[in-house]
Amino acid sequence: MHEAATGLSAWESFYVIVGSSGGALIGLQFVVMTLIAESRLRTQGGALGAFGAPTIVHLTGALVVSAIMSAPWPSLGSVSIALGICGLGGLTYSTIVVRRALRQTDYEPVWQDWVWFFALPCIAYLALLFDAAFLRGHDPITLFIAAAVALGLLLIGVHNAWDSVMHIVTAGRATKED
Question: What CA–CA distance (Å, rounded) separates 104 from 100?
Answer without folding.
Answer: 6
